[in-house]
Amino acid sequence: MSITIKDITAREILDSRGDPTVEVTAMASNGAAATASVPSGASTGIHEAHELRDGDKNRYEGKGVLQAVAHIESEIKQTLIGMQVTNQSIIDQRMIELDGTTTKHSLGANAILGVSLAVARLGALVNNLPLYSYLRQVFSLPLPAKPLPLPMMNILNGGRHASNDLDIQEFIIIPHLGVKADLSLKDSIRVGSEIFHELGRVLHQKKFSTDVGNEGGYAPSLKNNEQALGLIIAAVKQSGYSLAKDVDLGLDVAASEFYKSGKYHFEGKDLSVNELIKIYQSWQDNYQLFSIEDGLAEDDWQGWHQLTEDLGNQVLLVGDDLFVTNKERLALGAEFKAANAILIKPNQIGSLSETVACVLAARRYNYKVVVSHRSGETMDTFIVDLAVAVGADYLKAGSTSRGERVAKYNRLMEIEAERKSSA
Q1: Which numeric CATH code is attached to 5-128?
Q2: What are the residue boundaries of the structural domains of the chain, listed by start?
Q3: In CATH terms, is domain 150-422 a member of 3.40.640.10?
Q4: Which string of DSSP letters, residue by residue, matches 292-341?
Q5: 23, 215, 377, 404: which one is catalytic?
Q6: Annotated catalytic residue 215
Q7: What is the pLDDT of residues 32-83, one digit of tens each?
Q8: What percent of the chain has pLDDT over 90?
């Protein structure tokens, strides 16, 4: 006998920044229930699906999500009641059709995604499967040929994620220890944690603040971006590790945030595309940069093509605002030969099925895949199981500080232990 959706409820909760977001519980005809919550970004691309906010300045400065909650408990619930829990793609398509807009402006991407994730988790529960295994099954995904995704850890914050003067939004480490066969993923996470704490000591010794930003990385006031890179490299070395051999460096530039009137307003100067690319090239030469996310603005397609021509053979060039987890924009990127990796954030597109479709498209175009959190997170760890299910190359979940970030890394280590015990 098939198990169907019996009820769907929703409520307004707070994310890691103290702003409202949506939590959804889906209930099955056999009595099972599963809950999921939706994150929110601070630095958001203009092409992202619409996050529905109430706009009532008397509540949460207009950021309330009671309208999204109401849509879930009325139109969406009425449409989905009685549908088979495991018909994930059909359920998502019904909600997309019910919304009727290309950006999910009517019901809200936060409403649709909350239901989509809760139903997927419910499907895993009624099938008695780990979520990552269920996602592979329901979307007919192959078993990944590679190990679990490596962590990308934002350990120093700037831009929209911190109250300092750094233009670059995230300074990232990717601990891998040369991906040695005798070491596990938990060793990479341990290395990241050790470097994070050592960076705190380096900052303290130099009289810099050790307060943390939105994603758990330190947020000191520094004179420029290169000083930040130098401090991180010092922490790597003082932790007993080697750059490139044990840990790589990455940046999330979030260049759309400082792009205006055809110029990049970076470190107090107005730069052309070529001038900014030359800075990245010099940093790659001097600091062995492994990855650059959103190095140019979200609609600077010609610039992205040039950046990829110049650095694509040396650096992982990740499109976030550029692609917004949208397979149509990714197809345009492939046509322009722009970037060589994509950041995957389910709330950018607004449903689980569309998220998986974008990952599959990325694989066809030979783009690397990075599954990512948002700056406004919850304790929900869904993205970790998603990253494992689709065989993502990397998981970007912030620093090893703040519970909503650490929860993701703990879930990743839990999955590693589950896989080892069942091998």
Answers
A1: 3.30.390.10
A2: 5-128, 150-422
A3: no
A4: EES-S-TT-HHHHHHHHHHHTTTSEEEESTTTTT-HHHHHHHHHHT--SE
A5: 215
A6: yes
A7: 999 999 999 876 789 999 999 999 999 999 999 999 999 999 999 999 999 9
A8: 91
